[in-house]
Structures
1.
Amino acid sequence: MKRGRPCAILVGAAIAAACGTVEPGASPSNRAGPCDLAGPPPRDLAEGRTIGTAYRSVFADGDRCYAEIAGRDFGSLTTEIGTMTNTVAPTPGRFDFREADAVADAARRNHQDFQIHSLIWDPLDQQVWGIVPEYVRALPDAQRHRFMTDLVTKVVSRYAGRASTVTVVNEPFDQRGGLQHNAWWRSTSSDEYIVEAFRAARLAAPTMKLLLNEHSSETISDKSNALLALSKKLRDTTVEVNVDGKTERRPLLDGVGFQAHMLGGPDQQPRTEDMRANLKRFTDLGLDVRFTELDVRIPTKDGRAGAEDLQRQARVYATMAGLCRETARCTGITFWGFTDRHSWITDYPATFSGYGSANLLDADYRAKPAWDSLRSALR
Ligand code: 9MR
């Protein structure tokens, strides 16, 4: 990933010279400090909802703006990689919570909500990421299943009382709505692994909000139909827990996370009405909904986006914010990063060839048109 020199350590004219390349449509740098952004921050604009961002502690090293903006302008921090299997359980018998703790600590310092993400996930199309370490894959089915429930218990109980929300299972479906035959699925050859992961999470932290998370399910499709059916099953399954000294039964599921990795090129947007109707199917079950990984990638040439694409991107951000605002059970939005300096879209150019510039701020932390359109839509 190209990073360049952190702009935040430069001052005055040196910022303009070294951090140079202003995107067309980005706000001019008439700001007092390199990390300043005009107007009220998104975190203050959506009453009753948390407007937050994914966070990775290493990005704050030597880059003041990353930590400052994440802490000041957003209402929640979510572990971007801190609670994935390969981060918390990299080798047999060893747990590593340094990254997740760092995100939790940053959220506490900034008086923010803290959310943990993507606990049980094994992306078949990105095996190179090694999310499920080899030693876990090699376990016999029953042991791998046990490892999974123990892992959920360990992580969720560690953050009980600190994290408001956890996306317990991420991306269980393929594009046609079949269950992905990944390492976790192989333990039970059915959706039972999902039910058991949720049961372990509920028992470990009865009041934490438990979410099921998917990508490309924002509209009505075979995939979102399957997600709906599984959500209903998890909602209808209850488990006995103890809350404040009282025994009660709680459903395994509180809500559904729609990742919302959107496209901002011409004619690439789903119909808003279709997304609205889809969300309603989930909230009608009494479930919360949340956009959990929102970003909007747009066509770029040599890393730069054009003015029209930036304007269309601004409209897509506003559409998603508007959808959340009008949906009573939408708990808010998590952006999958907030600056083009650190974006998974440009981290994987082979996957997203010709696209980039997906976040609200440019690589030098200047507001893009989306920053203002988002804030207007949240008000
Ligand atoms: O943004 C994350 C990226 O930096 C990591 O390399 C990758 C693998 O650890 O995970 C990315 O986040 C993913 C998220 O957890 C689930 N949905 C898809 C996101 C992008 O792959």
2.
Amino acid sequence: MNKIISDFLKEIDKRNSHEPEFMQAVREVSEDLIPYIVSQDIYHGKNILMRMCEPERVVMFRVNWIDDKGEIRVNRGYRVEMNSAIGPYKGGLRFHPTVNLSILKFLAFEQVFKNSLTTLPMGGGKGGADFDPRDKSDGEVMRFCQSFMTELFRHIGPNTDIPAGDIGVGGREIGYMFGQYKRLKNEFTGVLTGKGVSWGGSLIRPEATGYGTVYFAEDMFNHEGKSIIGKTVTISGSGNVAQYAAEKCIQLGATVISMSDSSGFIHDKEGIDEEKLSFIMDLKNNKRKRISEYLKKYPNAKFEKGKRPWSLECDVALPCATQNEVSESDAKLLIKNGCKCVAEGANMPCESGAIKQFKLNKILYAPGKASNAGGVAVSGLEMAQNSLRYSWTREEVDQKLKEIMINIHKSCLEYGKGKDFVDYNKGANISAFIKVADAMLAQGVV
Ligand code: NDP
Ligand code: 2IT
């Protein structure tokens, strides 16, 4: 079996050898999927995984814009349309200086599996640009978004490809891009999700990824007859996902002791309560400042410059910032310090060595494609509401989100349950694969 896997990976590597993040994502999925595919006559010999590893289409384009000093700036934009077997391409846009094809291909590949798990009819895609909105004025961000959409609009549409937010793309950026799309097409449609509530957005979409991650952690605890109530939680990131993961932990009665950004983490032993969290939300979302400013208001907390919060004693760790932010040695430290549950709010935050440690030590570990699927799931509900020209209440959307997370948990159990341990990674990979593979087989070699 190991030889079949390594031959497959060698073949994929030939075309993608300069894409380390993409190869990492493919490797992790292949180790679960190839043994399964080989055991199933309907999938074996159809080159189905190879087909899933090749994007249906990739567009790369120049994005010119003018900064506040009147200088002409050039960025690179992308959209990776990975797989449309079960629905139109769906997935976020990331604006961050590190964005490249490898990162977007890994995100698009993961998105295909994640979207399949949601049970909603969405294919997978991802896009973005190597643009950094953090040090730009509002006017610069608007001009960039307009220029980006001036090219992207011809490749997307409410029945073709429906982008949303990701790192560096929140409500403000979605607004500017929606405005430009509408102007170019003269159509008011659900072409993007994460829209404002008064112009087609869904209630609970901003909260959905963070809330869903915590619902999933609670589902894992409940399955063992335990609960997140009373647990100590360490969170990385302080953006959209981290903020609402923290909010849901607090609402459920857990104690959140850390949040972070790319400059370091804050440690508040007394716990980040609702008031402190609203200070962080204002700091990050309106003032757009660094997390270290938390100490000016709450001087009892500590700031650890340039570090991640995995050295803290905790019961639960929720990595909600970015890929490869938990190394194997971080994982060992977390386990040594008592951590029992890791649910990924971010995409691929744990390196392969870290996942190996979680499995060896039978930690409740949920891969992002399962635990952070609540965001895209509510995007799917936003699309449904747009098609119905109707909107559901907060309670209705939240209830549907909870049910979707419970269903994802069940799917993971179906294919991941062992004697005394649930391999959520394997469960998620196989369950997600089956739905996409069946659709691809039914649609022929296209
Ligand atoms: P935001 O841009 O709102 O926040 C990102 C946070 O992560 C910020 O605190 C940022 O710090 C930090 N961060 C980003 N890059 C790095 C880095 N290289 N090193 C250290 N810290 C970093 O993004 P989101 O909260 O939306 O996304 C966070 C993660 O969740 C990503 O992995 C994304 O793919 C994933 N995700 C997002 C979903 C969504 O609906 N938004 C859905 C599912 C997954 P700083 O401000 O200093 O840059
Ligand atoms: O990684 C993700 O699932 C997202 N960034 C959200 C995608 C979406 O279409 O809502």
